[in-house]
Amino acid sequence: MPLLVDGRRVRLPQSAGDLVRAHPLLEERARLLRGQSVQQVGPQGLLYVQQRELAVTSPKDGSISILGSDDATTCHIVVLRHTGNGATCLTHCDGSDTKAEVPLIMNAIKSFSDHTQCGRLEVHLVGGFNDDRQLSQKLTHQLLSNISLKLDLKIPFFFFNVLELNDREENESHFPIIYGIAVNIKTAEIYRASFQDRGPEEELRAARALTGGPMISIYDAKTEQLRIGPYSWTPFPHVDFWLQQDDKQILENLSTSPLAEPPHFVEHIRSTLMFLKKHPSPANTLFPGNKALLYKKNEDGLWEKISSSGS
């Protein structure tokens, strides 16, 4: 299946290395991103996107100026941006159902599109590395093939920082170079980033993903509101057993890439498991009346809870 790279049609490669060797400009762009220092992004004006979430907005947004996500090892962070109106979508894909997720991503960005407007869609893929189980390679290929198919080949891949391009080796083990990125909605700048604030409702959103929740859109750019839920899940199997395990067991059994996880991974999993134990049936305790939790940025650029909404 062909792709469109910088206006040139090319065959879908077997690996990231094949594509880069054929198009050195991609490697140069990847090198520039890798060479950046990691910026700590504060909560003001930020919309943080967790695993299996997507968010889309435009420069007209008066509340959100930055979309971002991190903690990607075998996962990929995908950014789509329309050069005409600046509409930008960021999502954190883990390969659970790429075929179903790509149409959601495409429809999210297309909802901002004006077919008479000049411009094109840019795609930025960041994440993954040469992991032992080749999960990154599988996800890269799934994203490339499904996005190119969905867009009928009309895609220039501007940033392609995955697999070999995002891999470093240390003591015969492989690690990602870039774990997280942010995109400035107003300027279109994409840069390496990490985030202290992953809220609101960080544990609730993480619990939904850990229990197998599908990809969802979390932000309404028209109302400039973050909408969480209502969610439901079945009780997490053997939650007490997992909470009794040591760090090594949690890392080896609940991670796709145990050696490459960031330092806070186990703590994050434990807190999410504790949350799931406390809320085995979230519809009853977290979403009374089956109403969503709504958040909006206040004058200081921070999330503030507003009245719940009906389903």
UniProtKB/TrEMBL annotation:
Record GO cellular component, one term: nucleus
Coiled-coil segments on the chain, per record: none
Domain of life (superkingdom): Eukaryota
Molecular function (Gene Ontology), one example: protein-N-terminal asparagine amidohydrolase activity
Signal peptide as annotated in the record: none
GO biological process: ubiquitin-dependent protein catabolic process
Protein name stated in the entry: N-terminal asparagine amidase
